[in-house]
Write a structure and sequence with these properties.
single chain; about 70 residues; alpha+beta; two-stranded antiparallel sheet; 2 strands; about 35% helix; about 15% strand
């Protein structure tokens, strides 16, 4: 469950056209991420290889957080 703040963000920014970050195509087409509406953007929330694989990769290598949707 994503919680109350997620539902508020979805309601506040609901529109027919969602914005996309510069990394959208990479998340969707290359990494095959599950995209969901969040704060007016299409954002990835889950990848086929799972959260454990993502966590271990960040611990052993490096992680990148795309902040372009934060204004």
């Amino acid at each position: 469950m994503l919680g109350k703040s997620f539902n508020l963000a979805r309601r506040h920014f609901s529109s027919d056209v969602l914005k996309r970050t510069h990394l959208f195509s990479y998340h969707k087409d290359v990494l095959k991420g599950k995209m969901v509406p969040f704060a007016g953007y299409e954002m990835p929330v889950l990848y086929p290889e799972g959260i454990i694989k993502e966590h271990l990769f960040c611990r052993e290598s490096v992680g990148l957080f795309d902040v372009s949707h934060m204004g």
